[in-house]
Amino acid sequence: MPELREFLRRVDELGELKTVRNADWNLEIGAITEISAADPNAPALIFDDIKGYPKGFRLLTNMFHTQARTAVALGMTPELRGVELVRAVKELLSTTKRVPAVSVGEGPLLENVFTGAEAGVLRFPAPKLHREDGGRYLGTADAVITRDPEDDWVNLGTARVQILDDKKVCLYVSPGKQTRLIAQKYWDKGKNCPVAVVCGIDPVLFAVAGLGLPWGFSEYDFAGHIQHAPAQVVKGKITGLPLPASAEIVFEGEIPPPEIEAQMEGPFGEWTGYYASGTRPSPVIRIQATYHRNDPILTVLPDFKTYPLSSYLFLIFCAAGLWNEIEQAGVTDIRGVWQAEWGARFFTVISLKQRYGGHARQAAHIALGAREGGYLGRFVVLVDDDIDPSNMQDVLWAMSTRCDPQTSIEIASGCWSSPIDPRIPPAQRAAGDFTNSRAIIDACRPFAWRDKFPKVHSIDPAYQNEIKSKWKEIFK
């Protein structure tokens, strides 16, 4: 699996990397990225010579904007697409083999180390991405590292990190996430929580940091499984936490209990396309050490309303993880799982070959109770195995022609949501009730009379390939 710089070399070979010079960190980088992202084949963008910063202090956006780049990041062939890419990631996730990280004495991360008075975060070109954002965000494509004080295992999770000043940042973590639960253990004892944040991160570590593995299972160990080699780490000089040896940028510090110190975080333009979570008191990280490679690269994942989504990486991993969870519950004949680019977690599609009455609905209910499917969803759409769940034209056609609104739609309530859900009513939000409802939309042929359902008229896939091959000049 490639580290970040090797990943960028391969992306460049694909012709999917562009360098942008002399952009302003204040809104311009965000605007350039968002406009570029409106193209489904948008390149990854490296910003250099950023206004107010020396040459070589770079910023990367649109890392995983295409399925080809997502595949390359995971060491797979860039030709993988749709359900086949999800299937390949599903195989990676189907086992929970642990390959523990190994500690090394040196690594590129240690090329520049600043502690005490010299430590700070304003040396990096953290952007203000959207006009109404509450400030500059250093952590959007990151990993927050903490250690469970009771069971002594190391967790990596993703969270957004807003700069307050050179020595302090604000940390937003959704309720129920492991980073928050670990920090709470320190706070309950009146202690500060040691923490490290990786802001220039290798693709595989970023992928696993967003997975939500079982409690006690370190993402470092799972990264080793995915990349078929142990993650290499160096010991943090302040916290003793293991830091990725090849990371671009890391800072260490401590999180005091929120009742001791908290600051207002946000708003931030979220992946939902809204400023839903607003502004609220959030934990603060006091900066104690800063590390970076020579010519460091700050990894940034802006969230847009624009189609397609900001990153295929989480979409693919969430869909693959959910596919595994459904099968592990004993539901067979799942042909594919997808999450819509314009809806991500809000819109999940499950394709299956129906074997018995209630088979499709069973898969949907398992999805609502699964770790990947249970968080922050809205719609679960069920389709037959002749429908490609990654092709939204196919999915909407099935919904339009096979779904009867009166009998094919179920509503579940009291489901796990998040403050970033834009549809939570103000009174419910004020009460801290971050739950929502879900719709199961059964767009399968009714099992009891599926054989009597009108036949589909469509070109046979084999004949379609034959025609495409014969008439190549037309289908370029």
Description:
With 476 residues, this protein is α+β, with helices and mostly antiparallel strands. It folds into 2 domains: 4-299, Pnp Oxidase, Chain A (Roll), CATH 2.30.110; 329-466, UbiD C-terminal domain-like (3-Layer(aba) Sandwich). The chain has 13 helices and 22 strands. It has helices at 4-13, 28-37, 67-73, 82-93, 178-188, 203-209, 219-227, 312-328, 359-369, 371-374, 392-402, 426-430, 461-470, and strands at 17-21, 44-48, 58-61, 102-103, 112-115, 137-139, 143-147, 154-157, 160-165, 168-172, 193-200, 232-235, 242-244, 249-255, 262-265, 280-292, 297-299, 334-339, 347-352, 379-384, 409-416, 435-442. It is globular. The model has no long low-confidence stretch (mean pLDDT 93).
Q: According to CATH, what is the class of the largest domain?
A: Mainly Beta
Largest sheet: 10 strands, antiparallel
Number of strands: 22
Number of domains: 2
Give me a quick take on this structure.
The protein has 13 helices and 22 strands. With 476 residues, it is an alpha+beta fold. Strand 18 and strand 19 form a beta hairpin.
